[in-house]
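Re: that backbone. Tokens:
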């Protein structure tokens, strides 16, 4: 149907693609329609397709929440931001410094200083992101040759018996490698998992990419009592070890003095409301998991809204539980940060190179809290290829292209800052996903998918800007069809 195809082209849903052999493959109209409907574009008739296309065109014409550009290049203003007759606009830098500009036409001049700005045009305000032309690269850290190991943190073994390694063991490892002349230590993803769940332990299937794996927190590294010694074994028994670690962390929390609790509360407050929302998720997740309900989609519907009355009442009724999960996040965040500080203090040019997973678990904290900015009704994966002849369905979700645009890329920026805030660099898993992702309707085989286009230029420029701000290295995994 031509109307369906026009809608797919406009939204960025591929109607065809070529596989690793170069063969051109056509996506069925049925798959196109299912994907488009999941993206929020009704298309069950020619008329519905036309209405959805008109709505999409209108939204794309609307004033964006953020304009993304780069240094040294003039930036055309969208038609939705018409210049006043006098041509005057105001540009406000992050430090509050304001400058008046007089434009001869609908184009901003080239800027030389990267950063985020507030652009005021008449009565309209938009955020302007000005990126450097590239992310920081190896050469920006020096002219010598650099080397460093890749470590799986849980596999580290310290001097105390424990079932798996933590951020304290990571700190010890970076000190030893720094003494050997290493400048970086690449680590597995340290994103937040499901608290105390011994079955969901893959670091590439996180609950949230905005927060940290609390099981990795190292109390002794921060001057708190060490967790009790516990024999592990040749292999890690996650099903036993993670619930036991949660019990040990609760005992530690119960023994904290008032001054320590006050310090943790102040640090947590400074992290912003998103952290408290994540702590609420963990508390709800444990509460409902004890009742046999695994994942927020299986919770009673009244708890599906993080800002709803039911979630708020739960938080008010369980303040100690919320504070406990804020504590475990504080413990992980600060002990990871200490490992990075130790790497730099020991002379490493880069330090920790963390790993950014390509997506998040459908039942996790991000999928619960970031409704509207993540894909719904779709999972991500890979098409059939020699590595996976049936294709791959990772059972994950990721950002929605339009959700990113509507939010002014706020969740993408927050995710990068979380990754780079306590590391010297970041590896982007499946970096080709910044340009397109293979999406599969929920419950369908991987082969019943197609590619969804992403705003690559904006995403890579924002990555370069955050790399510049954090003085951090960005590494791209280059696998993909």
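Recovered sequence:
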């Amino acid at each position: 149907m031509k109307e369906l195809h026009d809608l797919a082209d406009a939204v960025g849903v591929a109607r065809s693609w070529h596989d690793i052999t170069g063969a051109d493959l056509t996506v069925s109209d049925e798959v196109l329609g299912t994907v488009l409907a999941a993206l929020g574009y009704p298309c069950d008739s020619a008329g519905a397709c036309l209405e959805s296309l008109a709505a999409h065109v209108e939204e794309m014409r609307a004033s964006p929440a953020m304009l993304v550009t780069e240094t040294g290049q003039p930036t055309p203003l969208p038609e939705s931001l018409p210049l006043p007759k006098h041509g005057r606009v105001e540009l406000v830098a992050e430090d509050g410094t304001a400058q008046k500009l007089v434009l001869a036409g609908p184009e901003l001049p080239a800027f030389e200083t990267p950063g985020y700005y507030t652009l005021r045009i008449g009565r309209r305000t938009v955020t302007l992101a000005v990126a450097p032309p590239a992310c920081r690269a190896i050469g920006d850290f020096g002219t010598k040759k650099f080397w460093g190991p890749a470590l799986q943190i849980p596999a580290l073994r310290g001097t105390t018996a424990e079932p798996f390694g933590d951020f304290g063991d990571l700190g010890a490892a970076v000190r030893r490698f720094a003494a050997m002349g290493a400048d970086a230590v690449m680590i597995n993803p340290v994103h937040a998992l499901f608290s105390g769940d011994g079955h969901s332990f893959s670091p590439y299937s996180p609950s949230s990419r905005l927060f940290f794996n609390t099981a990795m927190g190292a109390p002794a590294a921060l001057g708190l009592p060490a967790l009790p010694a516990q024999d592990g074994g040749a292999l890690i028994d996650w099903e036993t070890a993670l619930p036991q670690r949660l019990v040990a962390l609760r005992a530690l929390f119960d023994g904290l003095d008032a001054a320590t609790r006050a310090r943790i509360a102040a640090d947590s407050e400074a992290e912003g409301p998103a952290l408290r929302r994540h702590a609420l998720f963990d508390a709800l997740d444990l509460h409902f998991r004890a009742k046999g309900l695994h994942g927020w989609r299986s919770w009673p519907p009244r708890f599906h809204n993080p800002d709803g009355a039911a979630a708020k009442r739960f938080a008010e009724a369980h303040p100690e539980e919320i504070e406990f999960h804020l504590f475990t996040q504080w413990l992980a965040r600060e002990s990871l940060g200490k490992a990075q500080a130790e790497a730099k203090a020991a002379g490493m040019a880069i330090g920790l190179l963390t790993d950014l997973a390509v997506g998040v678990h459908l039942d996790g904290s991000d999928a619960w809290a970031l409704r509207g900015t993540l894909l719904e009704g779709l999972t991500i994966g890979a098409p059939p290829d020699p590595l996976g002849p049936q294709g791959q369905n990772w059972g994950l979700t990721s950002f929605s292209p339009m959700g990113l645009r509507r939010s002014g890329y706020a969740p993408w920026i927050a995710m990068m800052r979380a990754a780079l805030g306590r590391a010297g660099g970041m590896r982007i898993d499946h970096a080709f996903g910044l340009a397109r992702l293979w999406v599969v309707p929920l419950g369908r085989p991987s082969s019943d998918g197609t590619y969804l286009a992403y705003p690559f230029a904006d995403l890579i420029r924002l990555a370069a800007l955050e790399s510049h701000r954090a003085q951090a290295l960005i590494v791209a995994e280059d696998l993909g069809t």
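The longest strand covers residues 124-131. The CA atoms of residues 92 and 298 lie 46 Å apart.
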